[in-house]
Amino acid sequence: MVHTITRRHFTAALGTAAVAGSWARPGLAQAKEITVLNWKGYGTDEPFTLKGFADLTGITIKHDYFNSEPEMLTKLRTNPGAYDVVLINSARTQQAEAEGLIDPIDFATVPNSKDLAPALKEHANLKADGKIYGLSWLWGMNSLAVRKGISADSWSIFTDPKYAGKLALFDDAVTSVGIGALLTGQDANNPKDLAKVTAALKAMKPNLKLMWSSEDEWNKAFAANSFDISVYWSGAAVRSIRQHNLPVEFIVPKEGAIGWLDSLAVPTTSKNKAEALKFLNYMIDPTFYFTWAKEAGAPASANEAAMAKLPADDLNRQIHKADYLSKLTFMAALPDDRRQAFNDLWEEVKAFYAK
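Structure (tokenized):
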């Protein structure tokens, strides 16, 4: 389903933001362009985002995309000066900081940061040398999604013979190892017995139909009945239901799920840092978030004021239940040797799947 927003709606929606944000001066801002590096279809490139920010600031937005977090880091390393804003999962923030790829955040330059949830604003994943590298933007879960009508309360459904050839896995080492760890009763961030994790993932082979890497790919394959059970992103589940009318049920299994915190950062080589910070402020603006959540579906905002704008019965609130927080293991920064071990394990499992 395609959603459209009239100019009148935008004017009304953005009026509050223009009043609340002293940095916003429609018509007075110097016209510039910034480049955002992000997953495709992840909020920053929605038509209402591009138009709303341009109307508010006079700044236009160009995008480049990545299909994996390693690719994101490679693009930052090999294209200095090409990007002004980058989406970084907080589990990768300390790695990006150690390589000198991103700036620390000065919260004084991002007025809406005053309403960020304290636990997320200065989350340990974002800290290095006493500074915060990245603005907490969104949080959510990598959990279980099933076709409506399927009953499930455990990740063990991934090995249930009833669903042979009906499983889709996310092609991501950290998520996959995390699921294997939860299935074997281990810490998703630091499983001690990787052999058990490997065995648990290899046992899914008879059910595996698809290895997906983007929301668009997931939606198209699910709509074509290519699979019935999958690991999926919570915010993407909202969009799949609301935008694409897909019969998706989103479940947090009894073993728990993997929580994640996404941040927005300004690369050290950005040539438009002031404009980039304005975009960061816009992306956590409650009025913008309300529009995004209602029109397209969004993960849970790190901004408490933004979440408070949603009705209590909103689908986004229902999927991001506060009760789930205690069942989540948030992705943490990984030492290089552990990350490499996760990558090696996942490559071994994928090679096994391909045989």
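The radius of gyration is 20 Å. The mean pLDDT is 89.
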